[in-house]
């Protein structure tokens, strides 16, 4: 066990954790932000995706010790009021069904659009192929990313 | 079995909804076993009679409307469609309705299981009547206050208006008076043409919570002082704990307890060893350090090949007949053309994105449970029986479900959590890892179908038979009559075919296997549909007919004919070129009829790919067209998975696929364009969440046959290997 300081959504959290504890469980159980989800624990499904210095990473497969003083953004930090263009597009296209995987999907889409504000369908598929949705909302995810891209270009 | 439901007393409801002061509370009561008619009752009257209502609405003096939702929200949209129905008849805006999944002290009443695509079709008339009754009581109360004729008063937008004078009261001002009135004996429901809210694609109220991480799923539930548990369960389904060494597990910092636990899975008590810690990661580390020796005495170490060999052999045995008409054997013997085919479908894991979890707190001879739960009433029954508790001492709280698909209608995971909480005398959350969730079952049963049919010279079906060899889910229950036939062998078959096919026979041979099996989205239709509609395609081709024309000529009912016409129009069916890769299938499930057409082609690499799916959904009366479309889209993707990307295999009596690296789910890159059309008609409401699933796999395989001439009779298969 060791003491770690994490920077999550612009706030500092000091936690006591096993160095090998995945960042996912540190965020969920020690920091107390439960929007980031556990899906597989082996970086296959993307439900646990957070931004790590702006890059999408699988928090289930990153030890908490590697995250110290790095800039971490979770779904709760994307906006205060659902105003992020990706959240808006997810609402406009009515993407979620059960909603469990959507935190990860949204974080991946936000990271994609930050890098590329006009992705082709192929680029969307490439960026999102690491994310599983058992409800099968993929078609709407594609549409919502395009909608968000259009709105981001207008803004 | 004595069915108790997770119903709610008015007092508890008012406490949970945070309301104060006078309120008009009204709900419906669905008696068990269908002995009495459904009744609309006032909450206080129900309380005084000791009756707990199945669903409630309540309006307080501020005019706020609160609904106690009687169904789980697992993605299918119950959170949206129930308020949409109430708002329509109650004459309020959807935004004015607050919805809660509130449990209560249960008494003995109707089923609350969210399954069988029944949220709307099972209760819509009651929900509409409940809303309309409340509206009429408010109108009556206003008429009383004004000493006006009720006919001169009407409700609109949360108010009652007096037509001649233009005077009005907000609902909140009327609840005190209305709460003393009797619900009307008969209410007139609105006509469809007058709907303002039903039938509209209004955005779901739960979407904002699901784009910012605020929706609370089972795994997100926390209680003060709660410990976390993971359980090492027998990898072979009926294994018992012979011994375990917990010394290394207990050495992990944070681990508090290591105990043997059990959970009821049908007639078995399945065993495991729970590691309980003050955080989940520590519990997981402790579990890794645990050494358990299992006793598998009497358990068959079978594998998938042996299991399917057994099912194929079962097809040769005498079968249990479920439904017959005419004389199949005689007509088949005389038929001008005879066809026979065998179809195979795999075992599957439900693999909800949210693995199973459950929070339980056993204290003071009471049990409180929180979790992603599809069947609160069954769970309550089960826990009352097992812990010898009274229903009022067992409270089942439902969170949002991160998928359900049938798995979360089972009672084992709350049972296990309750056992652990009782043993350690603390609130506990039991978390199933993805591996636990994928390997422990119960699984969708695999099935093998033997199909036979005879055609006349003119290409009409004279005789049709399917025999299913599969585990019978019902035979697993304690005390089940294992000589009984499977009553689902016609599930998925179009009802209208029974009118046109003069000689038919449906039955099953229950395959013996120790693998626990249960419902998976669309239940037996999910596998039956593949056999029925692949074989129908083979018959059409043998008869030299167009696949849609062939079906049409055997479907006398106008409803089916209409669906075929829409499919033809939406796909451009008649103008397609020959062998261009179009396939079609139509199935009927939970009183909805769905036709799907799939278009495949060969890519530049010569491999088959799916270009497009066109679905036509006839679910009769519906609430929200966008939710209907979303459910069909999702059903198609889930069917795609079971057709071409995943299956559960068994080796040495254990499930082989453990996580998404081997149980490969369909991904965005596998997703074709999907177009969903809803049939507009005046039929009764049918299911929405499941019926879109069964026709996809046969339509896909029929399309592949159309393109390549290769007939696929065994699922799953790899598209790239066609």
Oligomer classification = heterodimer
Biggest sheet features of chain A: 5 strands, mixed
The N- and C-terminal alpha carbons of chain A lie at a distance of 46 Å
Based on the structure given, which CATH architecture of the largest domain in chain A is correct?
Roll
User: Which geometry of chain B do the CA atoms define?
Assistant: globular
Task: Describe the structure in your own words.
The complex is a heterodimer of chains A (155) and B (722). Chain A has 5 helices and 5 strands, in the order ββαβββαααα. Chain A is of the alpha+beta class and 155 residues long. Chain A has a 5-stranded mixed sheet, with helices on both faces. In chain A, strand 1 (2-8) and strand 2 (11-17) form a beta hairpin. Chain A starts with a strand and ends with a helix. With 722 residues, chain B is α+β, with helices and mostly antiparallel strands. Chain B has 3 domains: 10-210, Aldehyde Oxidoreductase, domain 4 (2-Layer Sandwich), CATH 3.30.365; 221-298 and 356-431, Aldehyde Oxidoreductase, domain 4, CATH 3.30.365; 315-347 and 443-721, Aldehyde oxidase/xanthine dehydrogenase, molybdopterin binding domain (Aldehyde Oxidoreductase, domain 4, 2-Layer Sandwich). In chain B, the strands form 7 sheets. Chain B has a 7-stranded mixed sheet with strand order 11-12-9-19-16-17-18. The longest helix of chain B is centred in the first third of the chain and has 23 residues, at 124-146. The model of chain B is unreliable at 1-7 and 104-110 (pLDDT under 50). Chains A and B meet through helix 1, helix 2, helix 3, helix 4 and helix 5 of A and helix 7 and helix 17 of B.
């Amino acid at each position: 066990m060791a003491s770690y300081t994490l920077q999550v959504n612009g706030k500092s959290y000091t936690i006591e954790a096993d160095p090998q504890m995945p960042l996912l469980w540190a965020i969920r159980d020690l920091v107390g932000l439960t929007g980031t989800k556990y899906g597989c624990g082996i970086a296959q499904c993307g439900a646990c995706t957070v931004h790590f210095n702006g890059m999408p990473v699988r928090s289930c497969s990153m030890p908490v010790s590697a995250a110290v003083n790095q800039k971490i953004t979770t779904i709760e930090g994307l906006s205060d009021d659902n105003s992020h263009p990706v959240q808006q597009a997810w609402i406009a296209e009515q993407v979620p069904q059960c909603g469990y995987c959507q935190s990860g999907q949204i974080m991946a889409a936000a990271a994609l659009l930050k890098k590329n504000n006009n992705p082709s369908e192929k680029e969307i598929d490439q960026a999102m192929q690491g994310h599983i949705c058992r409800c099968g909302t993929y078609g709407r995810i594609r549409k919502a990313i395009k909608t968000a891209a259009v709105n981001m270009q207008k803004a | 079995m004595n069915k108790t439901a997770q119903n709610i007393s008015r007092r508890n409801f008012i406490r949970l909804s945070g309301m104060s002061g006078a309120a008009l509370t009204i709900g419906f009561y669905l008696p068990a076993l269908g002995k009495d008619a459904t009744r609309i009752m006032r909450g206080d009257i129900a309380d005084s009679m000791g009756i707990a209502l199945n669903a409630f609405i309540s309006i307080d003096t501020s005019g706020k409307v609160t609904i106690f939702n009687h169904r789980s929200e697992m993605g299918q949209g119950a959170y949206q469609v129930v308020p949409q129905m109430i708002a329509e008849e109650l004459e309020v805006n959807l935004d004015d309705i607050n919805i809660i999944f509130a449990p209560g002290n249960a008494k003995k009443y109707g089923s609350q299981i969210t399954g069988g695509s029944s949220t709307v079709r099972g209760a819509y008339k009651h929900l509409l009547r409940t809303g309309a009754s409340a509206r009429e009581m408010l109108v009556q109360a206003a008429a009383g206050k004004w000493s006006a004729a009720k006919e001169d008063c009407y409700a609109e937008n949360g108010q009652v208006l007096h037509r001649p004078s233009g005077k009005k009261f907000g609902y909140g001002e009327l609840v005190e008076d209305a709460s003393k009135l009797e619900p009307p004996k008969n209410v007139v429901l609105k006509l469809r043409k007058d709907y303002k809210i039903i039938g509209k694609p209004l955005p779901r109220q739960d979407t904002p919570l699901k784009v910012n991480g605020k929706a609370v799923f089972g795994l997100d539930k926390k209680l003060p002082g709660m410990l976390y548990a993971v359980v090492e369960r027998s990898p072979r389904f009926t294994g018992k704990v012979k011994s375990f060494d917990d010394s290394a597990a207990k050495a992990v910092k944070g681990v508090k307890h290591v105990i043997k636990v059990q959970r009821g899975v049908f007639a078995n008590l399945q065993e495991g060893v729970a590691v309980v810690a003050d955080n989940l990661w520590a519990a997981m580390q402790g579990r890794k350090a645990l050494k358990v020796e299992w006793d598998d005495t009497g358990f068959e170490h079978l594998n998938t090949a042996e299991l399917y060999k057994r099912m194929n052999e079962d097809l040769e045995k005498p079968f249990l007949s479920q439904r017959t008409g005419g004389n199949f054997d005689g007509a088949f013997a005389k038929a001008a053309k005879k066809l026979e085919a065998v179809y195979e479908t795999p075992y599957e894991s439900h693999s909800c994105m949210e693995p199973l979890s459950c929070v339980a707190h056993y204290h003071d001879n009471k049990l409180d449970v929180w979790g992603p739960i599809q069947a609160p009433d069954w769970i309550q029954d089960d826990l009352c029986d097992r812990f010898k508790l009274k229903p009022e001492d067992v409270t089942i709280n439902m969170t949002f479900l991160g998928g359900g698909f049938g798995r979360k209608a089972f009672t084992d995971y709350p049972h296990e959590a309750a056992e652990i909480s009782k043993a350690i005398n603390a609130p506990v959350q039991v978390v199933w890892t993805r591996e636990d969730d994928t390997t422990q079952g119960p699984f969708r049963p695999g099935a093998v179908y033997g199909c036979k049919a005879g055609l006349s010279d003119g290409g009409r079906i004279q005789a049709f038979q399917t025999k299913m060899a599969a585990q019978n889910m019902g035979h697993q229950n304690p005390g089940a009559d294992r000589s009984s036939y499977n009553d689902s062998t016609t599930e998925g078959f179009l009802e209208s075919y029974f009118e046109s096919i003069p000689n038919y026979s449906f039955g099953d041979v229950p395959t013996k296997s120790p693998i626990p099996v249960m419902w998976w989205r669309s239940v037996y239709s999910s596998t039956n549909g593949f056999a029925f509609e692949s074989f129908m395609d083979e018959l059409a081709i043998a008869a030299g007919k167009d696949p849609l024309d062939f079906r049409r000529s055997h479907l006398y009912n106008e409803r089916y004919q209409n669906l075929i016409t829409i499919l033809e129009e939406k796909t451009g069916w008649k103008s397609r070129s020959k062998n261009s890769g179009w396939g079609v299938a139509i199935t009927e499930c939970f009183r909805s009829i769905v036709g799907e057409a799939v278009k495949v082609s060969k890519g530049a690499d010569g491999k088959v790919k799916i270009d497009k799916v066109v679905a036509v959904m006839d679910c009769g009366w519906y609430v929200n067209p966008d939710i209907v479309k979303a459910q069909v889209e999702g059903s198609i993707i889930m069917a795609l998975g079971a057709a071409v990307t995943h299956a559960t295999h068994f080796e040495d009596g254990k499930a082989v696929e453990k996580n998404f690296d081997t149980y490969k789910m369909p991904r965005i890159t596998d997703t074709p364009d999907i177009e969903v059309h809803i049939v507009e008609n005046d039929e009764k409401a049918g299911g929405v969440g499941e019926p879109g699933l069964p026709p996809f796999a046969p339509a896909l395989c029929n399309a592949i046959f159309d393109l390549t001439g290769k007939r696929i009779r065994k699922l799953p298969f790899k598209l790239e290997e066609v």
